[in-house]
Amino acid sequence: MSVNKIGVIGAGMMGSEIALVFAMAGKSVVMMEPEQARLDKAMAGLQKTLESGVARKFWAEEDMATALSNISAATDVSGFGDRDLVIEAVFEDEKVKADVYKQLDAVCKDDAIIASNTSSISITVLASYFSEKRQSRFLGLHFFSPVSRMKLVEVIRGMDTDDDVIAAAREVCIAAGKTPIDVKDVVGFAVNRILFAMWDEVLRLAEEGACTPEDIDIGCKLGLGHPVGPFELMDNISNTLNLQVAEILHEAYGERFNPRPILRQMVKAGRAGRRAGRGWYRYDEKGKRVA
């Protein structure tokens, strides 16, 4: 099937940039968030992204000039009835997602594809919150932050996902400049299981005082070729979300993914990361690192 009309639920850092990359590909996108203020903030943020020098490394000027005109904003899902593909990018909580799915089940057309951007929750489990007729048209599309720059998308098939749904989802992701990889429906999928195993070890190094977070970041960038260090990445994603995902992995796989005490301390102390002004590093009001 052809996918030309896309809906995105959630206008946070992930949802807004998912909307942007499809808009850049010439798709009609409706981005939904219950609060108009959050929608306004998201659109302003996307404008800044397009005006940045980084954006010009990835996109042609003519595509950037028309991108935002392809995005319309909505505060509910009532206008999602004509969408070919709807991507949920809300809080990483099963109950929150289930509430969204109930709304989508009532308004989406019968052949609509619905996807979750979950980074860790089983797609088969999430599919169970839809009516049975929709479960074959549900899958996982896990994008990576920042979506405007990261090319990877994990494509996760649930137990009942149809082949044509997988094919259409892969095709539209490729059209948006992404590289899809197929991943079995296991908790945490592929990349996050690798990432959190690495984070467990760098957090142990910090707890032991073997290296400072800054030296570990330098070591990973210069010794392993990583574009950003693990502590920088944790701050960008948010330590609160990192702990939530770690807990999901811990529940699924046991002790090998038990969140480290230092991560729990950071979250309890309010050091959530860049957007909170403090994480492993300090940041100014614009989110620029100051220490």
Contiguous uncertain segments of 5+ residues = none
Overall CATH class of the largest domain: Alpha Beta
What share of the residues does DSSP label as strand, in percent? 5-15%
Element pattern in H and E: EHEHHEEHEHHEEHEHHHHH
Q: How confident is the prediction overall: mean pLDDT?
A: 95
How would you characterize the largest beta sheet? 8 strands, mixed
Global shape: globular
Q: How does CATH name the architecture of the largest domain?
A: 3-Layer(aba) Sandwich
List the helices and strands and how they pair.
Elements: E1 5-9, H1 13-24, E2 28-32, H2 36-51, H3 61-67, E3 71-74, E4 85-88, H4 94-107, E5 113-116, H5 123-127, H6 132-135, E6 138-143, E7 152-157, H7 163-175, E8 179-183, H8 191-208, H9 213-224, H10 230-237, H11 239-253, H12 261-268
Parallel strand pairs: 1-2, 1-4, 2-3, 4-5, 5-6, 7-8
Antiparallel strand pairs: 6-7
Keywords:
45% helix; 8-stranded mixed β-sheet; single chain; alpha/beta; Rossmann fold; N-(1-d-carboxylethyl)-l-norvaline Dehydrogenase, domain 2; 291 residues
